[in-house]
């Protein structure tokens, strides 16, 4: 225990920051990897690639190089920013994969086909879209629902009760034979403009860029509503 305390007492601030960054990214990746998304091979491949990217981007922080490696404008800062973008893409894909897996537990073929279409639509835009425009958009690809899969899809929609049938003002839209879905998932996000590195002096060379500072997840049925809020702090 004594040598641990001595190590912490003599640890330089920039070294502590580097270790905190490595630990935070690895913990975030492990948290994402605990999400259940079934046997979606494309999602599994993206998770494997995330760990490879993680090791490559954080390697400069784990070797002996000059103490100013975290200074504003360095290559390491840019690598970390790109790594944040990778995490954003993976998290959004993982949200879709987990949602499909949960809804189509009894129809894995349909879940995989829909996710494959989403990936085909989304992957080409990952490297070209700017931050804020990289969220999966609605696309018009259709899937043929096989005979044994039809009850699974239809069971996601329930006939309105006598009390609900006239309350159209509360409806978000009839999506299947005039019936409402039994569950809705909505994600709200807000983007703010920030300037460069929050921990370094501001300079005229640092350009403004947008970051996703708020994200709210809403999940509701006719009798239940659950809301989760994620907030990014730059303190």
Question: What secondary-structure arrangement, pairings included, does this model have?
Answer:
Elements: H1 2-10, H2 13-33, H3 41-58, H4 75-103, H5 108-126, H6 150-154, E1 157-158, E2 180-181, E3 184-195, E4 208-220, E5 225-231
Antiparallel strand pairs: 1-2, 3-4, 4-5
Polypeptide structure, described:
Helices cover 43% and strands 15% of the residues. By secondary structure, the protein is α+β, with helices and mostly antiparallel strands. The chain has 3 domains: 1-63 and 72-136, no CATH class; 153-181, no CATH class; 183-198 and 205-235, no CATH class. The strands form 2 sheets. Strands 3-4-5 form a 3-stranded antiparallel beta sheet, with no helix packed on it. Strands 1-2 form a two-stranded antiparallel ribbon. A hairpin with a 4-residue loop joins strand 4 (208-220) and strand 5 (225-231). Helix 2 (13-33) runs antiparallel to helix 3 (41-58) and helix 4 runs antiparallel to helix 5 (108-126). The two termini are 31 Å apart. The relative contact order is 0.09.
The helix/strand order is HHHHHHEEEEE
Cα distance, first to last residue?
31 Å
The dominant shape is elongated
Kindly name the structural category.
alpha+beta
Annotation, overall tally of beta strands? 5
The average pLDDT score comes to 76
How many independent structural domains?
3
Report the C-alpha radius of gyration, rounded. 23 Å
Low-confidence parts, pLDDT < 50 over ≥5 residues?
127-136, 199-207
Helix content: 40-55%
GO molecular function: GTPase activator activity
């Amino acid at each position: 225990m004594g040598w641990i305390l001595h190590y912490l007492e003599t640890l330089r601030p920039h070294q502590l920051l580097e270790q905190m960054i490595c630990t935070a990214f690895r913990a975030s990746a492990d948290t994402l990897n605990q999400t259940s998304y079934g046997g979606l091979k494309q999602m599994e491949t993206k998770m494997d690639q995330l760990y490879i990217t993680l090791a490559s981007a954080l390697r400069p922080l784990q070797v002996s190089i000059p103490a100013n490696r975290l200074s504003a404008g360095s290559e390491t800062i840019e690598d970390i920013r790109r790594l944040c973008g990778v995490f954003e893409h993976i998290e959004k894909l993982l949200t879709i994969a987990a949602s499909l897996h949960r809804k189509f537990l009894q129809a894995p073929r349909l879940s995989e086909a829909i996710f494959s279409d989403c990936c085909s639509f989304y992957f080409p835009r990952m490297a070209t879209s700017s931050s804020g425009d990289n969220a999966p958009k609605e696309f018009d690809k259709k899937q043929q629902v096989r005979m044994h899969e039809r009850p699974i899809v239809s069971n996601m929609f329930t006939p309105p009760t006598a009390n609900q049938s006239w309350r159209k003002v509360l409806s978000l839209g009839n999506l299947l034979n005039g019936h409402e879905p039994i569950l809705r998932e909505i994600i709200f996000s807000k983007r703010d403009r920030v300037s460069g590195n929050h921990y370094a002096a501001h300079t005229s060379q640092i350009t403004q860029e947008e970051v996703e500072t708020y994200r709210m997840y809403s999940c509701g049925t006719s009798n239940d509503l659950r809301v989760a809020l994620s907030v990014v702090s730059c303190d």
